[in-house]
User: What shape does this take?
Amino acid sequence: MSHQLAFAALVAAAALRYRPAGRSAYYFARGKLGGDPVFAAILRQGLIPDRARVIDLGCGQGVLLALLATAGDPRQGANWPRGLPPLPRDTTVRGVDLRAEAIEAARIALGHGAEVSVGDVRDARLAECDVVTILDVLHYIDFDAQVRLLERVHAALVPGGRLLLRAGDASRGWRFRFTLACDGLITLFRGSLQRRFYCRRGAEWLALLRQVGFDAQIQPMCAGTPFANVLLVGRRP
Assistant: This one.
């Protein structure tokens, strides 16, 4: 089976977890997992290992956590292409998000398979872990808070642990302006218009991670979309 077909099957199975949470939660999960390139990239690059303890900061309704839970099903692993890193198994997942309605959908979808809670990522409890994901979140908090959170993440990760950070690249001209406009509309739709975003150029995000103590690399993460996103992979030495 090709990677595209295998990933589509994985997405369909993960999205089904949201059926009991309602049509909106289901279709959001299916569209987000299938249309956002970051999820396929995380699996295709083997960025989350077996038995990883994963904390997703700003998890929304927990679609990444649902994807990881589904990836642990042996039936999914059996259909995964042999030329790619194997799907992660036996992960332990936690998620934190400000929006109570999103966390409720995550609880319904994940059941007892994950610990999800309502909270501010700036104050989230960070126990020892192997992977921390922060996808499209950091620009909502001020620059000093970004540094403090990344320092806490670095301290919580075991040696060799990974931070997966996706953020907008402010050097990308109209694509970045479009990305910010979409973020503004999303916050307006959710009833909490954010008047300022705390953004950096891709090279500045990379420098920040290295300043905190990560070995870090950056790659584009907007294929097939009009956005200006990059994925930074930070490793704690």
Summary: The chain has a mean pLDDT of 95. The radius of gyration is 17 Å. Residues 173-189 form the longest helix (17 residues).
